[in-house]
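step=encode ok
step=design start
structure_in=
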């Protein structure tokens, strides 16, 4: 396994704003570019159980997996998945 680290920019190192020792492990925030959100899955499930649900963007890797996990846990009366990108994997 390859270790990944975050290093300060050259500008920050040369400018003295940080030290080379400020190398850190990669975090979720580094990859997302924002703080992770906390999802109230039980609240969402309670709100959607027994209702009809439309899932858009269902052609990508995340979007195609969402309906499978979603229907297994939330139990809507029916769910409809749609995708407008004709190059998506399930559309081929």
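sequence_out=
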């Amino acid at each position: 396994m390859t270790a990944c680290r975050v290093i300060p920019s050259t500008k920050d190192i040369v400018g003295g704003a940080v030290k080379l020792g400020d190398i850190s492990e990669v975090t979720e925030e580094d990859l997302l570019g924002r703080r992770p959100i906390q999802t109230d899955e039980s609240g969402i499930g309670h709100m959607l159980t027994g209702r009809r649900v439309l899932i858009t963007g269902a052609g990508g890797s995340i979007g195609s997996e969402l309906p499978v996990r979603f229907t297994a846990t939330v139990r809507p009366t029916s769910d409809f998945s749609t995708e407008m990108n004709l190059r998506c994997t399930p559309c081929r």
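step=design ok
step=annotate ok -> The two ends are 34 Å apart (CA to CA).
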